Amino acid sequence: MSIEINNESTIEVDESALQRLAAYAFDILHVHPDAELAIVLVDEAAMEQLHVQWMDEPGPTDVLSFPMDELRPGTEEEPSPAGLLGDVVLCPQVAQVQAETAGHTLQDELLLLTTHGILHLLGFDHAEPAEEREMFAIQRDILVGFGRYDRQR
Predict the structure, then answer these.
(1) In the chain, which residues have pLDDT < 70?
(2) At what angle do helices 106-121 and 15-28 cross, to 10 degrees?
(3) Which range of residues forms the domain containing residue 106?
(4) Which residues form the signal peptide (predicted)?
């Protein structure tokens, strides 16, 4: 599995934790071990530019997902095919504000946003209430499981 992280922002983050989380999410969601993912951290100006260009919305946002091969979660018996999952773009400055509001660390917020972005790459959405319940339940399960998994390592 190839999980590439590129921090183009000025904020230092625990890149290895993001990489471990992505690998854990791949395992839980039965994504093929040869799937490829890029996680890019950018500053507010770069994120705003992407947000306007791709979503036609002003201002920076916390996370954007850019799917490539439209992979979907697999099953234990049949993992997803190998391929390019896509890119998750994070903005640590926006995430920091959200973390403070939520009362947790920047790292916790980045883990949440990474999980959220990966789920979007795998076709999950939260436009409708039923979709939101499903996506956020999976997101919560991944984050809780990862916390237990990562502490055991």
Answers:
(1) 153
(2) 40
(3) 2-152
(4) none
